[in-house]
Write a structure and sequence with these properties.
Blueprint: E1 13-18, H1 23-35, E2 42-46, H2 49-58, E3 68-70, H3 76-83, E4 86-91, H4 96-99, H5 101-110, E5 113-115, H6 121-138, E6 141-143, H7 151-167, E7 172-183, H8 188-200, H9 204-211, E8 238-239, H10 240-243, E9 250-253, H11 257-270, E10 280-286, H12 291-313, H13 315-324, H14 334-339, E11 341-350, E12 355-363, H15 366-384, E13 394-396, H16 398-412, E14 416-422
Parallel strand pairs: 1-2, 1-4, 2-3, 4-5, 5-6, 6-13, 7-10
Antiparallel strand pairs: 7-11, 8-9, 9-10, 11-12, 12-14
Helix pairs in contact: 1-15, 3-5, 5-6, 7-11, 7-16, 15-16
Amino acid sequence: MTGGPTPHTAREFDIIVFGTTGYVGELIARYLAEHAPRGTKVGLAGRSETKLAATRKRLPARAHDWPLVVADSSSPASLDAMVARTRVICTTVGPYLKYGESLVVAAANAGTDYVDLTGEVPFVHYSIEKAHDSAVANGARIVHSCGFDSVPSDLGAYLLYRKISDDDAGTMTDTTLILKSFRGGASGGTVDSMRVIAEEAKDAETRRLLLNPQALSGTPGNTPRPSMSSQPSDIAIMSAKKVDPSLRGTLAPFFMASYNSRIVRRSDALLDHAYGPDFRYAETMAVGSIPGLSTLAAGAVGVGIGTFLGAMSFGPTRKLLDRLLPKPGEGPSEKSREKGSFVTQTYTTTTTGRRYRSEMRAQGDPGYKATAMMIAESALALALERDRLPNLTGVLTPAAAMGDVLVERLRDAGCTLEAVELT
């Protein structure tokens, strides 16, 4: 762009929500209408002005004069024009491997901060390769995974790091997130991303990337290639007592561990490996504390995950799943969204032998209401609190890009986020 990006102070909008006519996009716009500070300038973007106008009518009255922005992921020129008008672009248009590549590059080139909900390792790797250097040069923060994937994981480890540093208790060693409770459903967008990844995984190079525990920890042109044994398995069945002596039973694999763990490791890399040279990270799911029963349940979960992934990559069974699973743009009723909740706990032992636990909990369906809150607060942090953010630009993570600012905003929004030493 001639003369460089437009300064943030001269932008027409603080935030543009791209994909407003989609199910989650509308939830984000609604959250902003209800919670953004007065004076926040918001635009609603999508392919169809008619559909945007219909969506706007369903939003609270405050949003009824928000401008509409027509843009299409298949039109790079429209994306360039859109990102040049705003401080932050908040996008729900996925699968990101299919629809997100041009937008992330446009944002980096325009010096526009960016947030999304991706859970796709190949897309974030593409973003690092194609957008990191230009984002750094233009002062943009490209922040992936600002929803249930992967804010609880990322901030769970970050809270431990901050508490341990404050206590001068050494650095982190084996660290494990446990999904203690989850009430909600899989989003249609997440399922659609899984369909795309299942197709991409047929390529040998993509499979190697997906299996690499440090796939997202590198810089452009420099993806680390450690052995798979350098970090815990993403599908391990684990004794809870090995995570922390206070725990009982057996822990099952957590379905999103293979993505969330890479985001947490990228945060560590972006923070100059502040979590420690012995930092190892895993994610699991609680299935009960009774030894025998929890072991059987954990084994069943492990088999179920393997069966599901295999079915997604096999044509006939995938067609059956396509009829049963939620489609993009679909979601639960407001009543169901309100009933949802989640709790994650992350345990670690430091190099001095001290034990710590962090916890994040929130009300609302994790994949919908809670996710809309998390990405909206991320967008607001980038748009309105730039002077308080860490001095990092490029392709970032929630913890590295926003750190304490995001923790504070989520607490103010009603989330529990805390870290304590265990005795």
